[in-house]
């Protein structure tokens, strides 16, 4: 390249200007310079257009489109401005589009007369266009080259300077590379700053990652780049962001963790460079197969958030160089950190946004629950509760309509619906056949959502057609520990969008307290109703207890037994008996229509009328019922009536007279076990204003029995729906004829219960049995003054009377002690603080067979057995007599003791077996 004599590169012309010398040696130098310039920016072709001695531009080097390159060079030379033209652009309006991209840089001083030429580069390898960085680098190279050429004008030793010029050009190349690296670093820093700003300013993660990966592709000058993220189970890496021509094919793939370069980086958390991908077995070949892409080299780095790997980024196939370098790793890690920060930041923001939305929703839901709580506290009935609650529900879920569907199974088999439509709540009822889908939801406990289409509407039954419209959701509701079967529905979303899982969760949250509130309110109403019923039952029981005798009438003229058991809480049956002196007695059984409080009041009124008539008149049973019917009919305002069988007994004549007011035929069982039904004619009392009653009369013989009963004693049914019946009742009584009346009745009741299979009692049970003794009793009566001195006289009287008639051990002493205690109570307490003149008590004695009945009668203060305190046995054993001991002693020593207050007199009955 060096000769003995070389001209300066730049010489002065005769006109005083400058031109570029031309020689074989200089031409080689120009080609060397062009090759280095092309290498700097990966240009395909290049030429110098240098000013010759004649002032024209001479081309040195090769370009494909000499015409286009010449025009560009001429334009740049005249304008003294460097130029970058992209592929496809036009030099002038009329010129064809350029087939390649061009860089043209001016050689010379922009101000002054040193104009040397133009450096033109044509086409860039692997890219369509030169970049602004490329233009900046060649401008830097060209300006320094101009300075070197300019110095040759003033050189005195051309040969020596030529050698120096070669060295300077090599230094210029190194300096240009340094400049290029500096520019690249500056570009990289600018990109990192731009990416950071983008990450901080944008909430669109997809857009951020696409721009980051495009930036990575540009900075590292690669054919493609990609970002992969770990799935939730951390089993696969999924392509999230892909740049390059094959991004659609690649985006569908997933890389198993631990396989391929990306999978390995995810495990090791270390970056990797693979510069010979075709021969490296670690490369995941499925990507190339799916995309028909050839991977030459790979640069991969982990995405790390905290201490966890969340993904991997890759740069694929360098463009202007054969290999990735270690320096690339340091830069690439900055991009991976930026991506990780972007993902983490966006994830945090999304989580925060989600949390804010959820918090806002929860606050709204809590407000709704609070409002619901207020509605519960302030609502007094189910409709009021539903009116407020459904309004809260529609507002919370931004819907038009809502409602609650309640399934009532059992006897009713109805669907109760509270439907809110057009701001109003309606209560309605449907038959079970009028709903399928909502009822299935309740029974299967599965919610369902949907949109009412024409096809779906055709499948709806009456209920669904009434309540569901547009978009809807139906949620079954069944509070824990409750028998409530119901469903909430909501429909007509104002946003015209489907109800989602979040809406269902809200509905579940609100539905639970609403259902419980409804259940509680319903239970409260039931409790109030139940308490009202219980109060009514309690009053009814008290009335009945006051109606029914609280003692068993005791007489040696008959053995009386009676039992009355209600089928439900209260009974519709009642009975009564009453003695008139020592020889006259009346007995009755009755059955009142109805079982409620009005029935009890009607029973009390009826029994009071009958009792008053029987005790204050001498009417026959038929006449008594006739008069009773008139009075009862006058007071019967609700259509109630009473059936009744009335019996009067005269022990002196042994005659029984009877009459019936629509009651069952009663039973007369003779001593020889034959029997007869006692029939009477007449309507139930209270049915018509004037009743006509026909009864009858029989003579009772010793050993006979009279059985009075209501229909509950014969109409009880067994599992085969067979009635117990009158015949079987008579047979069972006859079979027990020798037993006491009360024992017979108790056993009969148990037999009937066993017959029914111990199921619920069908009807009220009332039976009264009178057994008449086979011998005539002995009767004695003696009156004593109610003073303490008379009590020893009474004991003496009893001792003389009973001395030879009592054979049972201790019975004599038991009777004397008991009568003594009873008489003492009358004298000491019965007449205490009274102004009754000539106080007395009668001692009536009846003996029949092995039994004795002693009755003490006084006119003192009414004796209430319930008011007598329980005695202290220990205190009395110590000699400390306290209240209640005398009564306690009497009831322990005698077989039977009972008390009655009637017609202003106290009756104390005492019975004892004496032999």
UniProtKB/TrEMBL annotation:
SUPFAM superfamilies: GAF domain-like, PP2C-like. Residues 204-353 form the GAF domain. Residues 555-772 form the PPM-type phosphatase domain. The keyword Hydrolase applies. The keyword Transit peptide does not apply. One of its GO terms (molecular function) is phosphatase activity. It comes from the Bacteria. Pfam families: GAF_2, HATPase_c_2, SpoIIE. Keywords: Hydrolase. This is GAF domain-containing protein. It comes from Leptospira ilyithenensis.
């Amino acid at each position: 390249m060096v000769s003995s004599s070389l001209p300066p590169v730049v010489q002065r012309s005769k006109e005083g200007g400058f031109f570029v010398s031309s020689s074989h040696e200089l031409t080689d130098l120009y080609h060397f310079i062009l090759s280095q310039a092309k290498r700097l920016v990966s240009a395909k072709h290049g030429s110098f257009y240098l000013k010759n001695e004649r002032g024209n531009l001479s081309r040195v080097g090769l370009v494909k489109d000499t015409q286009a390159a010449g025009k560009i060079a001429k334009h740049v030379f005249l304008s003294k401005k460097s130029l970058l033209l992209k592929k496809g652009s036009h030099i002038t309006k009329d010129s064809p589009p350029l087939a390649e991209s061009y860089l043209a840089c001016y050689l010379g001083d922009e101000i002054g007369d040193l104009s040397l030429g133009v450096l033109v580069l044509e086409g860039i390898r692997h890219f369509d266009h030169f970049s602004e960085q490329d233009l900046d680098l060649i401008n830097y190279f060209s300006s320094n080259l101009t300075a070197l050429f300019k110095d040759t004008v003033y050189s005195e030793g051309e040969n020596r300077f030529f050698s120096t010029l070669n060295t300077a050009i090599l230094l210029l190349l190194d300096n240009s590379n340094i400049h290029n690296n500096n520019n690249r670093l500056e570009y990289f820093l600018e990109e990192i700053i731009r990416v950071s700003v983008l990450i901080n300013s944008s909430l669109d993660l997809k857009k951020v990652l696409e721009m980051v990966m495009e930036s990575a592709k540009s900075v590292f000058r690669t054919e493609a780049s990609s970002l992969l993220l770990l799935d939730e189970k951390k089993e696969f890496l999924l392509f999230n962001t892909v740049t390059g021509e094959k991004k659609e094919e690649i985006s569908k793939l997933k890389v198993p963790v631990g396989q391929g370069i990306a999978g390995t980086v995810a495990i090791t958390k270390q970056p990797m460079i693979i510069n010979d991908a075709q021969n490296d077995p670690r490369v995941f070949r499925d990507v190339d197969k799916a995309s028909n892409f050839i991977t030459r080299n790979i640069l991969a780095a982990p995405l790390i958030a905290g201490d966890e790997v969340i993904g991997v980024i890759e740069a694929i196939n360098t463009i202007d160089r054969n290999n990735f370098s270690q320096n690339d790793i340091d830069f690439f890690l900055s991009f991976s950190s930026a991506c990780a920060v972007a993902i983490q930041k966006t994830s945090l923001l999304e989580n925060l946004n989600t949390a804010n939305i959820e918090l806002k929703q929860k606050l709204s839901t809590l407000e709704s629950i609070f409002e619901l709580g207020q509605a519960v506290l302030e609502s007094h009935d189910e409709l009021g509760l539903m009116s407020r609650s459904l309004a809260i529900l529609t507002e919370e879920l931004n819907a038009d309509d809502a409602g609650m569907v309640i399934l009532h199974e059992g006897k009713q088999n109805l669907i109760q619906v509270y439907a809110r439509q057009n701001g109003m709540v309606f209560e309605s009822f449907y038959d079970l056949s009028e709903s399928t889908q909502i009822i299935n939801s309740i029974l299967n406990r599965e919610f369902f959502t949907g949109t009412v289409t024409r096809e779906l509407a055709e499948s709806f039954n009456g209920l669904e057609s009434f309540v569901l419209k547009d978009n809807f959701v139906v949620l079954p509701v069944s509070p824990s520990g409750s028998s409530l079967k119901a469903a909430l529905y909501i429909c007509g979303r104002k946003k015209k969008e489907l109800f989602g899982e979040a809406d269902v969760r809200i509905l579940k949250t609100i539905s639970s307290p609403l259902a419980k509130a409804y259940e509680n309110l319903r239970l409260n109403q039931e409790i109030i109703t139940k308490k009202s019923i219980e109060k009514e039952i309690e009053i009814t029981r008290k009335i009945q207890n006051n109606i029914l005798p609280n003692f068993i009438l005791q007489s040696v003229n008959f053995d009386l037994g009676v039992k009355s058991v209600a089928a439900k809480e209260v009974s519709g049956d009642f009975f009564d008996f009453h003695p008139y002196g020592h020889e006259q007695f009346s007995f009755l059984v009755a059955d009142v229509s109805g079982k409620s409080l009005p029935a009890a009041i009607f029973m009390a009124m009826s029994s009071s009328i009958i009792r008053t008539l029987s005790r204050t008149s001498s009417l026959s049973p038929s006449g008594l019922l006739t008069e009773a019917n008139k009075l009862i009919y006058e007071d019967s305002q609700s259509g109630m009536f009473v059936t009744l069988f009335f019996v009067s007994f005269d022990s002196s004549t042994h005659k029984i007279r009877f009459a019936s007011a629509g009651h069952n035929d009663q039973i007369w069982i003779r001593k020889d076990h034959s029997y007869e039904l006692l029939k009477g004619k007449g309507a139930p009392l209270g049915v018509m204003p004037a009743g006509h009653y026909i009864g009858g009369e029989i003579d009772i013989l010793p050993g006979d029995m009279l059985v009075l009963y209501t229909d509950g004693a014969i109409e009880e049914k067994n599992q085969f729906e067979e009635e117990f019946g009158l015949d079987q009742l008579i047979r069972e009584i006859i079979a027990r004829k020798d037993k006491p009346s009360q024992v017979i009745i108790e056993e009969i009741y148990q037999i009937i219960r066993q017959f029914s299979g111990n199921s619920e009692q069908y009807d009220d049970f009332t039976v009264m049995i009178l057994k008449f003794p086979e011998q005539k009793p002995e009767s004695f009566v003696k009156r004593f003054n109610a003073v303490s001195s008379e009590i020893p006289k009474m004991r003496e009287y009893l001792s003389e009377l009973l001395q030879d008639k009592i054979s049972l051990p201790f019975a004599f002493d038991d009777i004397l002690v008991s009568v003594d205690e009873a008489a003492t109570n009358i004298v000491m307490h019965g007449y205490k603080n009274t102004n009754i003149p000539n106080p007395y008590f009668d001692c009536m004695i009846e003996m029949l067979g092995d039994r004795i009945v002693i009755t003490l009668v006084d006119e003192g203060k009414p004796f209430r057995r319930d008011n007598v305190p329980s005695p202290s046995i220990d205190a009395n054993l110590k000699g400390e007599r306290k209240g209640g001991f005398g009564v306690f002693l009497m009831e322990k020593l005698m077989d039977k003791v009972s008390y009655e207050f009637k017609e202003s007199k106290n009756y104390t009955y005492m019975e004892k077996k004496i032999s």
